[in-house]
Amino acid sequence: RAMSIADGDHEIVKLSCTSKGASARASSTWKHDTRKFGPQNALDSQSEAGWKSAPSEENDPMAYYEIHFRRPVLVHEMRMQFQGGFAGMDCIVYKKKSQTTVEGSGEQNNDDNVEWEEYDELFVEPIDSNETQIFPVEMESDSNETNEPCTALRIEFGRSTDFYGRIVIYSLEVW
After folding, report:
1. By 3-state DSSP, what share of the chain in percent is helix, strand and coil, each rounded to 5?
2. What is the pTM of this model?
């Protein structure tokens, strides 16, 4: 079931619904148990479960979480709820721009060949808290730039508030 809220003159819609084809990937999953701790759990607002990463390795400390929309979407904001003590910090958000269909290929939803690029307008700086945190896409009003559609988002976490580098996201919504 899709959800929407009014934002001034516009209505924004929850884009990260699994019922609309959104899926998630992550750098790791706690004890490789994707049913209990997999990245898809954070997209399911009906679930008590969430995504729990494995401890970070010293030679590979960067954890990441990806949402693939399977269609071009216009992102307005991201909402995240961490478990206190297991928050991801020093975040950089990337996006895959929507590509026009190659004539005759019918491969519009496949973004595997599209490069990730930094999403400068979506600045994510979480605090270590259980509260849901909202991060809006910030467009400069005097700029000619427009918010461009994307097919996927990737959040890279430079570190965690947990001593062992684990990250727990109970809920991640893209509106």
Report:
1. 10, 40, 55
2. 0.85
